[in-house]
Write a structure and sequence with these properties.
alpha/beta; five-stranded mixed sheet; 10 strands
């Protein structure tokens, strides 16, 4: 990994979500822990970097489900039963729990041994808070084992309609260009800047009718209504992916299919051929967010990307008793490791 004085300034959907949720969390995630992975790091940077590598059981399950879906749609063998899925996921989660409870390994190599919040903050899986998460996750796994084969994408691929697989959460051609694109903005404190946009599509394939199908998998236990408007976060993410496919593969919007599939409930939202006007609104939203992010950089100079002080990044709560703080992996950095989560209702 290259050693730089400051991190690179970029934009992504996940970065956008963190910025709009909590400015202080944004600083921890993208600035405070920079170079904390080095062999002899600054102690503060290393501590923050450790907390960047904190996850939770629910997120680990989501990652596991994504891995299963990749296997399910790319394997030619159709014999992929719900029992097979559950066994693979249980093994995956067992390994995550072993890593996620090892404090020494987390301290030494945080990126290879992400700590689970359930162990870090809640006293392990026997606590009431953790039990609620486990119940939520078990319901999700039971539903997924039965419902993922009902998704449009799974049915379409197993029916032989996939002409060519382009990306499955990774670049199938290994050309090292996957996941990024450069777009130039002209109004960041009066200077033209080339900003890197990161996009990572769960699944992209060419259908037998020549359409490029862009699929975003979700793993919520409940369905979320998607409105075809750039102000809707779910649809906005699909539009970002559409722009990525347009720029990288030179595919016209009229030849795209946008899908948001909940693989736990088996439901699919589909939108065909986003207009240039709608995509342009999404790009305008990105420009606006980039300009807001630049306000937290010294002199707005995103090329050097020296962050303003940590204190300039506001906190959602002064005492941590809000739904965002209760779920935040950086909670200990704001309120101390002994801070407790006040409400079980806000965990899942």
């Amino acid at each position: 990994m290259n050693i730089t004085k400051t991190p690179e300034f970029s934009w992504s959907c996940s970065r956008s979500q963190t910025f709009n949720t909590c400015r202080r969390s944004y600083w921890y995630q993208y600035y405070g822990g920079h170079n904390g992975w080095l062999d002899n790091p600054d102690i503060t940077a290393h501590t923050i970097y450790k907390y960047r590598n904190v996850t939770n059981f629910n997120l680990v399950v989501g990652q596991g489900i994504h891995e299963v879906m990749k296997k399910a749609v790319t394997f030619k063998d159709d014999d992929y039963s719900g029992q097979d899925v559950k066994k693979w996921l249980k093994d995956y989660l067992h390994e995550a729990c072993i890593k996620g409870s090892n404090m020494a390994a987390w301290d030494s190599k945080p990126n290879r041994n992400p700590m689970l919040q359930e162990f870090l903050y809640w006293g392990g899986f026997k606590s009431d808070k953790s039990k609620k998460v486990i119940d939520y996750v078990n319901k999700k796994l039971d539903n997924f084992g039965e419902m993922f084969k009902n998704t449009t994408t799974y049915k379409e691929i197993k029916a032989g309609r996939m002409k060519e697989l382009i990306e499955a959460d990774e670049n199938m051609n290994n050309d090292n260009k996957f996941g990024s694109e450069i777009f130039t903005y002209s109004n960041i404190h009066g200077k033209d800047r080339a900003i890197k946009i990161w996009a990572k599509v769960d699944l992209l394939y060419i259908r037998d009718d020549g359409k490029y199908v862009i699929t975003d998998w979700k793993t919520e236990a409940k369905d979320v209504f998607v409105k075809e408007d750039s102000s809707d976060d779910s649809y906005f993410q699909l539009l970002v992916y559409a722009w990525y496919v347009f720029k990288k593969y030179h595919v016209l919007f009229k030849n795209m299919i946008l899908r948001r599939e909940n693989v736990v409930t088996g439901t699919t939202f589909e939108s065909a051929a986003p207009s240039l006007a709608v995509v342009s609104k999404a790009l305008q939203r990105i420009v606006s967010e980039v300009e807001s992010m630049a306000d937290y950089v010294v002199d707005g100079d995103v090329a050097n990307n020296v962050s303003c002080s940590k204190e300039s990044y506001g906190m959602v709560s002064d005492d941590g008793h809000c739904s965002q703080c209760e779920k935040c992996k950086f909670r200990a950095l704001c309120f101390g490791l002994d801070s407790t989560v006040s409400s079980v209702e806000n965990i899942a």
